[in-house]
Amino acid sequence: MSDQEDVERQRRRRVSLANAFDRRAWQRGEKPKVPARILAGGVALVVVAAAVFGAGALISYQQGKKDKDPKQKAALKQQADPAAKPPPSPSPSRTSASPSTRVKPEGGAAAPRSRAPKAKAAKGRPKSRFPTGPKFSTTTGVLLRNVMTGLCADVPGFGKGKEDGPVEQFSCDGSTKDNQRWDLVVNQPGAGPGGADLFSIRNAKDGYCMDVYAYGPPKARTNVSEYYCRPGSGDNQMWYLERKASGRFWIRNRKGGLCLDVAGGTGAGGSGAQLTTYGCSVNDDHLWSFA
């Protein structure tokens, strides 16, 4: 059978189906208002539309099934494995820091500000600018006034003293034009008798220290002079305070314990009198104060 005959055969079958539909759709004695071919075409369109709709629904169903399957598998896997956890949510970037929350006390009052603790003064150290006892901090620009004579430790002239130059007493002058200001430099804290601080007596203008001849313990009536500062036990330039009354002290040499003294009889030394070392006595001119 040729292809042309096959096509013709199929066409006749469609016409026969259309005529049969036409005869069943209308009652006897009535004529169809629509030609049979038009009805046949409509039936064909309905069949084609149904086929297209069914194919679309099938594709949509299959796509939905594909989307749904991974979620169902993940849910089933999580139920089967309770230890499995979902992936953590991404942490916020460093630039978007969360604001800190402040907790207020009950009653709505503002939280009290805590005060910083006050710095405590060193134990045994006075608050005064001048020494008040045998333990003190380095003090600069101090006048050493003899209580009995009322005169101050001085260097001859108004300028700088000389190496091995004398230290004497003179009318007190605390101005910078004179050379009567001294620095009490604590070199060995607590190393003196009874835990007293050991210090050098350094002239503020020339930088020399009060010194006693040689290196060992000085003898009575040994003159006090100025020399390059050598703090420590190698020389005899270290002194310590012994408090005798409020603001009044013996200034004692570490080697031998003699007191800073004014030459001459008890209080007899006048302006220009040499400072010496001598055995400490409350009846002599050995008391000193600071100004």
UniProtKB/TrEMBL annotation:
Record's keyword terms, sorted: Membrane, Transmembrane, Transmembrane helix
Pfam name, any one: RicinB_lectin_2
Listed Basic residues bias regions: 115-128
Amino acid composition bias (Low complexity), ranges on this chain: 73-83
InterPro entries from the UniProt entry: Ricin_B-like_lectins, Ricin_B_lectin
Residue segments, region Disordered: 62-138
UniProt domain Ricin B lectin: residue ranges: 140-291
CDD domains, per database record: beta-trefoil_Ricin-like (cd00161)
Domain of life: Bacteria
SUPFAM superfamilies for the chain: Ricin B-like lectins
Transmembrane segments: 38-61
Entry protein name: Ricin B lectin domain-containing protein
